[in-house]
Amino acid sequence: MTSFVPTSEKIDMEKLKLKEPILFYDEIHLYEDELADNGCALCTVKIRVMASGWFALLRFYLRVDHVLIRVPPTVWRDPNQVWPHLTLVKEVVEKLTLPS
């Protein structure tokens, strides 16, 4: 049975920074909504396959207009640029266990 369990293990970011040839890469937009002109909601999945393994990233980005964000206006439109400017409020780390 597949399940998610809490863990203290994290992704090895240094391993992801290595210049290893990428055999396959794709990004899929699962969901996008303009929130009735009051912001933006975007859910994407990115997958990267290398000889040493694979990496998948699921990201949900939510922007609600008329809320104060202290970064330049051009930055808040791109989730890759806005996240370093945000304060971490809560972090949940879980591990997906698959049946053997």
Beta strands, count: 5
Which blocks of ≥5 consecutive residues have pLDDT under 50?
A: none
Look at the helices and sheets and give the structural class: mainly beta
Main sheet: strand order: 2-3-4
End-to-end separation: 9 Å
Strand content: 35-45%
User: Helicity, in percent?
Assistant: under 10%
The total tally of domains equals: 1
Largest sheet: 3 strands, antiparallel
What integer is the average pLDDT? 84
Order of helices and strands: EHEEEHE
List keywords for this structure.
mainly beta, two-stranded antiparallel ribbon, 2 helices, 5 strands, globular
Which SSEs are present, and which pair or pack?
Elements: E1 3-6, H1 13-17, E2 22-33, E3 39-50, E4 53-64, H2 79-82, E5 94-97
Antiparallel strand pairs: 1-5, 2-3, 3-4
Q: Can you walk through the features of this model?
A:
Helices cover 9% and strands 44% of the residues. With 100 residues, it is mainly beta. It has a three-stranded antiparallel sheet with strand order 2-3-4, with no helix packed on it. The protein has a two-stranded antiparallel ribbon with strand order 1-5. It is globular. The termini are close together. The model has no long low-confidence stretch (mean pLDDT 84).
What is this entry, summarized?
The chain contains 2 helices and 5 strands. With 100 residues, it is mainly beta.
